What we know:
Shape: globular
Largest sheet: 8 strands, parallel, barrel
Order of helices and strands: EHEHHEHEHHEEEEEHEHEEHHHHEHEHH
Distance between the termini: 45 Å
Strand order of the largest sheet: 1-2-3-4-9-10-11-14
Structural class: alpha/beta
Amino acid sequence: MPREIRLNAFEMNCVGHIQQGLWTHPRDQSTRYGELQYWVDYAKKLEKGLFDGMFFADVVGVYDVYGGNADAALRNAVQVPVNDPLMLIPAMAAATQHLGFGVTANLTYEQPFLFARRMSTLDHLTGGRIGWNIVTGYLDSAARAIGIEGQIAHDDRYDLADEYMSLVYKLWEGSWDDDAVVADRAGGVYADPSKVRVIHHHGKQYKVDAMHLSAPSPQRTPVLYQAGSSPRGCQFAATHAECVFVNGQKMDGVKEIVDTIRAQAVAHGRNGEDVKVFMGATPIVGRTDAEAKEKFEEYRRYVSSEGALAHAAASLGIDFAKYDIDEPIDTGKSQAIVSNVTAMTRAAGPQWTRRKLLEQMVLGSRQTPWVGSAQSIADQMMSWSEATGIDGFNLSRTVVPECFEDVIDLVVPLLQERGAYKTSYGEGTYRKKLFGHDRLPPSHSAAQYRSGNNTGTK
């Protein structure tokens, strides 16, 4: 039997997300991002296609590395303006029954006690369909926005993140017993005080002495996503992540990352299959190869090279505006997304130039699109799944909504015919649909904090 392929829509609560410039295409509707009905209809469409989730990226700064300012980002709507993705979830959840929601939140700038309540609230309101994409940030503009001169060093951000995770685990997993809420109307007791406890965390970065404000939600801890594939990022993922998002590179490179993360998870006492890996992909689908190629060439006419460079400059931590078109670029020691720098070096070679970068960004991003018939795209998905061990794909939008309609109407039926895609949703929470259980397994590091175990200083 072929491996079952899982699909997420890779989105952001903004106009221009990954493929820069395509918002100018006359059929694109992403400028409606401020309309709630747009997102509700979007979620219903994805659920019709049996997508596992909508995966929301987010940033809390602006892309101001290129040219030393945000002008190019503003001109080209490069993830600015950007609204809070968490605000969209309840409305989309109310319009659907099964679709999961993976939401990016930057723990470096989120107060953990309040963030834990926010995620528990969303888990309650969605009936257990919330996930959290754990990020530590990479934009100096975001650091300055909250009064810090610049980013914490890359690996130090992960050290902070490890402590943050232990704190929110204590709140989600250890503060309330499952049977703490008795809702005894006759006796006038809603929650049994003996089954609710204050957690005590006195760490290097955080000090909290408080009980969690929310009663246990269906999943307690949200489904945990993580997108780092640097050596330190892989270590963090092996400890915490249930779903890992990797950038599409060469098959052997992706397989190496998948194998490394799963091997490290096993070394941490986890089951390697407790980690699902989603790879970024950008399909341009047609009924025939010729139709897909025609659509791709049409899309290319709307690409913004300036927008693509502004996005790449920030995520790679390098101001490309300082270099002539064929001048060698010094990658240096970037404190941005280290795995992006590694991936770009693998794709463009050790000596980058602006010309090489633009050759890689044929559709306004560093992600090379897959262009072909539905048959061809289905073949590619299955080949990548079998060859690398990935579990599914985060599909980046191009021209919305047609890019996802093409996948749903043309590709999904072929995958179903081949036994590589579900024909109906399973019941239960987001985690149960992905892993077969509502709560984190006992092998996960969060389990040590359950039932009041070890809720003191760590």
